[in-house]
Amino acid sequence: MSVDQINGSVGLTERLRRRRKELKLTLKDVAEKSGLSFSFISQIERGLTMPSLTSLLALSRALDSSINQFLEQPVGGAADTRHNKRVPYAIGPNSATYERLSTKFPGSVLSSALITEPPGRRTEPMSHEGEEFIFMVEGALTVEIEGNVYVLEQGDSLHYASTRTHTTWNHTDRIAVMLHTCTMEYFGDDPEDAPHIETET
């Protein structure tokens, strides 16, 4: 059964496939433009797997689209967030759950989220511009960066260049929660629509 069948509607996978066909692109074209593998993109379009947020952004860019055309996400607002007010969301069943932490303002470059990875979930290998920082809040996670393997446990952190091919894997039988910050704009905000953030002096 596909992810879209589980959702009971024409969802993300169908929208991605329709957009690719509108642009008359092959799976190989999208793979080359996004930096993702042909087989992984094919699995997404067939509803067999779901991309991570950063992979979905890479696909959106390859399809000359905003990520918001494929996924509805919370809009950045105040400079602070409250644990009991954040709205968790996921791209699909059995995928990671995200809580947006960062806002957007002119000149800002960081995107930050609290990410909960279910047991056994492995992300697809990818590379893109910028850099990333991971801090483990709960559980453990394996991060592989071009053959270098890092096993992160609660309280551990990792900072690396996103241009290096990387993947993560929750190798445990419990959830893994991490604070993830990167310089890739994966919330799809338009800086011109960003709220004015007042800061104390």
TrEMBL record:
GO molecular function: DNA binding; DNA-binding transcription factor activity
Name listed for the protein in its UniProt record: Cupin domain-containing protein
Residue spans crossing the bilayer: none
PANTHER family from the UniProt entry: HTH-TYPE TRANSCRIPTIONAL REGULATOR, TRANSCRIPTIONAL REGULATOR
GO cellular component: cytosol
InterPro entries according to UniProt: Cro/C1-type_HTH, Cupin_2, Lambda_DNA-bd_dom_sf, RmlC-like_jellyroll, RmlC_Cupin_sf, TransReg_Diox_bact_type
SUPFAM superfamilies: lambda repressor-like DNA-binding domains (SSF47413), RmlC-like cupins (SSF51182)
Domain HTH cro/C1-type positions: 16-70
UniProt-listed Gene3D superfamilies: Jelly Rolls (2.60.120.10), lambda repressor-like DNA-binding domains (1.10.260.40)
